[in-house]
Q: What sequence folds into this?
């Protein structure tokens, strides 16, 4: 089942964001976070096509998903790649039974994910990426949940296309590299903070995000301050 009112509110919120000077990286991550609130999934990631026609990592809700998404590209196999290539959803309710993706399945299982659902991001007849959802337990999505997942994937497609139209001078590959660099900064700072404070990485990230919200600054700026020694970690 899906809370359709909450889904409609989320899509309306993101539609309004199209009219603002938004950060593509922040919006794609927020879409993933909303997916984990609306659907029975533990994480989400987005891959987007670069100028060379190949998929590039764009965003993820946490470090595990970041690693799984990027390694999937390196391995050259996985449901997310297949969703992008075929334009069809790839639903894998139990990765222990995922025969066609043995290398990908092992990586995902090693990082605590038991199921993955990949949805194509399309514009007309063109595939521009994949919106990917992960579960820590095996299980299927019902028809309403599948439809809601594709709606969120379509919203991600709209943001990517709008971003391209707004900034023709900056290539999508450059923006995605910026997103990856920002993610690396956040992951490094999160690890440093977790070690210094003796807390879990997830708790360290929540602390960083809380500071960013109170300071009205992006999380990546707080991460940069931590790594530069400008933030009183202790």
A:
């Amino acid at each position: 089942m899906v809370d359709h009112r909450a889904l409609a509110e989320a899509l309306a919120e993101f539609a309004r964001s199209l009219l603002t000077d938004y950060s593509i990286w922040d919006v794609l991550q927020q879409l993933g976070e909303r997916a984990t609130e609306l659907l029975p999934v533990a994480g989400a990631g987005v891959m987007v096509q670069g100028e060379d026609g190949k998929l590039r990592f764009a965003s993820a809700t946490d470090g595990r998903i970041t690693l799984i998404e990027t390694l999937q590209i390196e391995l050259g196999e996985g449901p997310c790649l297949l969703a992008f290539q075929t334009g069809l959803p790839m639903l894998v309710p139990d990765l222990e039974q995922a025969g066609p993706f043995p290398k990908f399945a092992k990586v995902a299982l090693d990082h605590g994910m038991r199921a993955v659902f990949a949805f194509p991001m399309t514009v007309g007849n063109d595939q521009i990426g994949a919106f990917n959802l992960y579960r820590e337990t095996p299980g299927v999505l019902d028809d309403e949940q599948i439809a809601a997942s594709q709606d969120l994937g379509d919203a991600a497609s709209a943001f990517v296309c709008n971003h391209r139209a707004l900034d023709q001078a900056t290539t999508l590959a450059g923006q995605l590299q910026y997103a990856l660099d920002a993610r690396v900064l956040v992951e490094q700072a999160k690890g440093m903070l977790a070690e210094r404070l003796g807390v879990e990485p997830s708790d360290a990230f929540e602390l960083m995000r809380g500071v960013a919200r109170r300071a009205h600054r992006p999380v990546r700026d707080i991460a940069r301050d931590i790594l530069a020694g400008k933030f009183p970690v202790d």
